[in-house]
Design brief:
CATH superfamily of one domain: Macroglobulin (MG2) domain
CATH class of one domain: Mainly Beta
Order of helices and strands: HHEEEEEEEEEH
Low-confidence stretches: 47-53
Largest sheet: 9 strands, mixed
Number of strands: 9
Structural class: alpha+beta
Oligomer: single chain
CATH topology of one domain: Immunoglobulin-like
Radius of gyration: 58 Å
Number of helices: 3
Distance between the termini: 232 Å
CATH architecture of one domain: Sandwich
Length: 207
Amino acid sequence: MARNAVPVRRRARHQAAPPRAVPRRAVPLAVLAVLAVLALGAAPGQAPPRGEKDPVATVRVTPSAVAPGGRLDLSTGACDGQTGAVAYADAFEKDVGLKPEADGDLAGRARIRSSAASGTHTVTVDCTGRPGAAEGEFTVAAPASPSGTPSPTAPVRAGGGGTADEHEDAGGGSVAGGGAVFGVALLAAFGVYLLRRRRASGSLGDG
């Protein structure tokens, strides 16, 4: 019995122990934060915030204010090295082709529609391959309100007012007075004629 027990103990001594569970190593939070930032930075196709746009060059507009039917001179240096561009605005009669000047800028002249609304308008320049490369502003003045046609008036006589009325009354009185004098003279002449005729008749009867 004792001999049989010894080998059993030896087998128990050489028996392998069960493997221990190795604890997982904790990842530092700082590393996770760095990875998150890198992932956000590498995200493709992120749209810019609304209301923002690429800065554009300036279109010089002369004069800055114009009446409907007037003209504007446009120039810009936005289209470097190009030989042409197009400027347009809702108040223009048509799009304007810009041509190079001696200083290298592109320039052209626009005509304002006679029916253009008054207020501030925006002019935009499209370069080759760069639409909306430059912008500028100008003002369309409100059309003048039509004035009423004055009615013709009679010329005022010298010494108008009461003086003119007095002259008119005096003129009428003189005409009436002249007619009365003429009538009296006519009656007197007729009386003299009758008297002479009677005398002539009496002289003939006496003979």
